[in-house]
Amino acid sequence: MGIPFVFLGSGHGGAVRYSHIVISKKRSIQCRAAVRCGLALLIALSAVLSFAQSYPTRPIRLVVGFAPGGANDIVARILAQKLSDNIAQQVVVDNRSGADGAIATAIVAKSSLPDGYTLLLVPASFSYSTALQPNLSYVPERDFSAVSLVATAPFILLASPSFSVFTIAELITFAKASPGPLAYATGGVGNLTHLAGELFKKMAGINLNAIPYRGTGPALVDLMGGQVPLQMAAILAAVPHVASGKVRALGVTSSRRSQVMPVVPTIAEAGVLGYEAVGWWAIVVPRGVPVEIVTSLNRAIGSALATPDVREKLLRVGAEPAASTPEALVAHIDSQSKKWTKVLKEAHIQLK
Predict the structure, then answer these.
(1) Which of 7, 112, 175, 267 could connect to 118 by a Cys-Cys bridge, CB 3.0–4.6 Å?
(2) What's the total number of domains in the chain?
(3) pLDDT tens per residue, the chain (352 residues)?
(4) 329 lies in which domain range?
């Protein structure tokens, strides 16, 4: 039954009339209570909408779980600068490095108020973090709300100049004829460069042995020196060394060629059909942030990523802008979680 919002006076027998409907005194009292409840809800909704319209009223903190200067930090600062312009409030990057981003993620999950003033930039490892480290204090799908995808970036399989392999096909042939596994450098155990290498190993049907390094930089030094024949690396770090001839590019891991290095074929087109391993970054917030605030942030991020200068800056570091809806980001994280959790289990990779 609809709630009558306007009462027009008393009728015969002590009843209250609304239009042509006669309602008893008891029902009248119930209706008035319902009206008061409805008005309270409207006032509360009005307050939320008013807050959303005025948001933000102070600086926003963007937490990054990695040290300054790396790809995660660079992507965060490119976004933060333009986002600050769009929302007329400063977006401050707060680096909390350690444990492949897990330390920062735990800090935001457990310590931040869900008011929209603390954002977290997460890399692809966010999607499979609990499978890699079962004892984490947070659960991504329980403790966070998705806001928007920010950017994507492929990896690149590199060869040392002293290693006599020039294509993916040659590498596969060489590896299958080799009596032992070929070593390849990664950015660390459980890092997406590691998982990308394990997926390549399985799909190409070859034997590879992952050598974990403390980041891409130290691994590149050994690759250029010939101490390791192969490396799965972030494309940003590889570009100058490929251009100078210090390392050799065999293939990129995306399903289509990278705009950063368009002459390098994809691993899929080079013979490993269906292969794809792409890094990405997204913005999430602590669970409980009002949907109006999430929507406001999503629109501001999308607007920032659509500007030519942000696109140019991202492409310069090997990334491509990739704004999304919150719903699309949830679906993306779910699919990535399933994909990489399977790789982790099959390769028996887990951090204690």
Answers:
(1) 112
(2) 3
(3) 333 323 233 333 344 333 333 434 444 445 454 445 444 444 434 444 444 458 999 999 999 999 898 889 999 999 999 999 999 999 999 999 888 888 999 999 987 789 999 999 999 999 999 999 988 999 999 999 999 999 999 999 999 999 999 999 999 999 999 999 999 999 999 999 999 999 999 999 999 999 999 888 899 999 999 999 999 999 888 988 999 999 999 999 999 999 889 999 999 999 899 999 999 999 999 999 999 999 999 999 999 999 999 999 999 888 999 999 999 999 999 999 999 999 999 999 988 6
(4) 60-153+281-347
Omega before 240 within 30 of 0, i.e. cis? no
Residue 10 DSSP code: B
329-346 as b/e, with b when 16 or more CB fall inside 10 Å? beebbeebbebbbebbee
Structural domain includes residue 334? yes
Number of neighbours of residue 183 by Cβ within 10 angstroms: 15
CA 285 from chain centre, in angstroms, equals: 11
Q: Quick check: is 269 in a domain?
A: no
CATH of the domain at 201: 3.40.190.10
CA 57 from chain center: how many Å? 26
In this structure, which amino acid lies at residue 292? E
The answer as to whether 75 is a domain residue is yes
Q: Backbone dihedral region of 11: left (phi > 0), alpha (psi from -120 to 50 degrees) or beta?
A: beta
Task: Look up the pTM and report it.
Answer: 0.82
